[in-house]
Amino acid sequence: MSQIIDRQSLKKTVIKIVQETPIFDLHTHLYAPSFGNLLLRGVDELLTYHYLVSEFFRYSEMRVAQLNELSKPRQAELIWKTLFIDHSPLSESNRGVLTTLQKFGLDLGSRDLETYRAFFHKLSAEEHVDKVFELANVEAVVMTNDPFDDLERPIWLSGYNASDSRFKAALRIDSLLNDWKNSSGRLAAWGYKTSAELNDLTLAEICRFLEDWIERMKPLYLAVSLPPSFRFPEQSDRGQIIEKCVVPVTRRANLPFAMMIGVKKLVNPELGLAGDGVGRGDVASVEVLARDFPENKFMVTFLSRENQHEACVAARKFRNIFLFGCWWFMNNPSIIREITAERLELLGTSFAPQHSDARVLDQLIYKWIHSREIISMLLAEKYEDIMRTGWLVTEEEVARDVKNLFADNFKRFVGLK
Q: How many Cα atoms sit within 13 Å of 85 on the Cβ side?
C-alpha cells in the first residue's frame, strides 16, 4: 500500500495531485495548428469571444451591427474598456481573461492591452499551443469537426495531416440531424443519392456518408447539440436519422454518440453566436435510447441546471450513459461546485467532471485552473467524509481516482484504453 494520507495533510495532498494530473479535454472547439486560421488564439480573440460580447451589450447602447462593422482589434478595445476598465471584471468569463493573462506572466496591474497584444503576436501557432498545453497541464484535446463547415471541409478532403497527435477528432452532425431539408441537397451535391424524403435509399446513403467521414476523420465519437424540445422516439427527420442511421453506424464502429442537450438557438437573433439561450431538456429520451440500444454508447451533457439531478439518476441506471462536463452556461464556479458534488455523491468517480468547451486556445488555461480549484476542494471534502469512519486513504488511491476523472474514464468509454 502506498503512503497513507493523514487528515492534517489531506487537503494539501489532494490539491497537489489534482494540479499535477494531466487532462484529456474531451470536448473543445479548438483546432490543430495545421488548420490555419481556424485555430483562434490571442487576447483579441479572448475579448471578442461571444460570452464577452453578450456582456458588453449589457452596458453599451451600441447596436450589434455597429460593433460587427468594426475590426476585431477595435471590437476588443471597446470590450476591454467597457467590461474591464469602466466596470469591475467580476463575471466568470471576465475573470477567465485575467487568469489567462496572469498565467502567461503578464502584468495585470498595467491594464495595458497593447502590451498584452505584443506578447501574443510574438508566438507562432505551434509555440502558442505548446505553452498553453503546458500551463493548463493538458495532454490532449478533442476538436469539434464538422463536414458541413465550408472552411473546414476542404482541409479534410485535401488530406488533413494529423501531425500533432494531441488534437483528436470528433465528428459533428448538427446539420444532418437538425436541418435535414437543407442537408439532403448538400449530400446529393457531394455524390450521395439522397432526397428530402427519408426513403430506404436515402437512409442507406446517410449511413454511407457517416461511414465515409468516420473513415476519413477517425473520430473518438459522433456529436450533436440538441434543443430542449428534442424527444426520442419522435416522428421527425431527426428521429428517423438517429434511429436508422446514427445508432446502427455508431454501434458498428463502436463509437459513442454524444448528445449535448438544452440549447435554444438564437433567442436573440441580433446577437448571432452570442444570442443562444438555455432550456430544460428531456432526460427520459436519453433513457429510452440507452434502454432500447444497450449495445450503443451515449455521452450526455445537459445545458440546464434543472436537468442535472435527473441526469445523474439516469446515469446510475444505465452503464452505457457517460455523463460529462459542465457545459457552457453551467461553467460557473457556483454551479460547477454544486453539480460536481451531486455527481460524486450519486456516481462516485464514474464520470468526467469537466470539459473546457474552449473555442479560443488560451481559454484552456483558465477553464482548467478554475475547475481544478473547485474539484480539488470537493474531493478533499469527500475523502474527509470517509476518513472520519476510520477508512484509510492513500496517495495512490487519490491519484488513481483523479486520473480516472480527468482522463481514463473517458478513454475507456471511447476505447482508447
A: 12
pLDDT value, residue 232 = 98
Total tally of structural domains belonging to the chain: 1
**172 belongs to a structural domain:** no
Range of the domain at 101: 42-122
So what's the pLDDT on residue 161?
77
The contacts of residue 394 (CB under 8 Å, 6+ apart) are 1, 2, 3, 4, 5
pTM: 0.97
Whole-number Å distance between alpha carbons of 223 and 256: 8
Q: Are 172 and 221 in contact (CB under 8 A)?
A: no
Rg (the chain; Cα; Å): 22
Amino acid, single-letter form, for residue 225: S
pLDDT of 417 reads 79
Query: 10-residue block means of pLDDT along the chain (417 residues)?
Result: 89 98 98 96 98 97 96 98 98 98 98 98 98 98 98 93 91 98 97 97 98 97 98 96 98 98 95 93 98 98 98 98 96 97 98 98 98 98 98 97 98 95
What is the per-residue pLDDT for 283? 98
Asked whether residue 65 is domain-assigned, the answer is: yes
- The grid coordinates of residue 305 equal 441546471
Check residue 61 and give its pLDDT: 95
Q: Looking up cell 436515402, which residue turns up?
A: 202
Task: Please provide residue 330's backbone torsions phi and psi, each rounded to the nearest 5 degrees.
Answer: -80, -15
- Runs of H (alpha helix) within 254-394: 283-292, 308-317, 333-347, 363-387
What was the pLDDT predicted at 163?
Answer: 81
Q: Could you tell me which residues come within 8 angstroms of residue 373 by beta carbon, excluding any fewer than 6 positions away?
A: none
Determine the pLDDT at residue 181: 95
Q: Give which of 408, 414, 410, 305 is closest to 21, Cα–Cα.
A: 408
Give the bridge partners for 140, in sequence order: 24
In sequence order, the 6+-apart residues with CB closer than 8 A to the CB of 87 are: 59
81: in domain: yes
With H, G, I as helix, E, B as strand and everything else as coil, classify residue 409: helix
CB 316 within 8 A of CB 342: no
Three-state helix/strand/coil letters over 17-59: HHHHCCEEECCCCCCCHHHHHHCECCHHHHHCCHHHHHHHHHH
Cell numbers for 44:
483579441
- CATH code of the domain containing 96: 1.10.2020.10
Quick check: is 60 in a domain? yes
